[in-house]
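Predict the 3D structure for this chain.
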Amino acid sequence: MKALEITNPDVERETLLRMAEEIPGAWIGIRIAGLLLLLSGWNSTKIAELLGLTRWAVVKWIRAANERGLDMLEDKPRSGRPPRYNSKVLAELEGALLKTPKDFGLNRSRWDGVVVAEYMRRFHSVEIHVRHAQRLIKKLGYTLRRPSYKYAQAVDTGVKEFGEELKKTPSGLEE
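Done. Predicted structure below.
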């Protein structure tokens, strides 16, 4: 009997690992799978190769399982500075991005990092850097586009009248 294979090109290890980063709780399933493989006789090197991780990551899982039991499956709270904004502010920003900056009194036609940082400062009293604002735009599923410039084209209307109104003075001196 022929072994089953995945033939869809969208299903690849890198894509699945990226999804595991984005989906809450997906790493718990990966850790469970790793521990199940270990219990069924696989060694840490083979598990790491299969899951696309470093061997050291799998060793740390094993050590944590030996020390803490099943509590090791949940991520521990990470230290660091708490965010300056909450999910409510993020939801309001997402709603604002659906409109134009001019709707909020910002004199720009498109959203970019500078405009989002200014919006956050004015409407939510949150000071963020432009680069962080750009990351927020991307996190909310939007992309930054370069502005497209349109040059004004000359038209023939009014040229003759302008020429008649324009008075030349000798040597550029005024009379």
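Helices lie at 13-22, 26-39, 44-51, 55-68, 87-97, 113-124, 130-139, 159-165.
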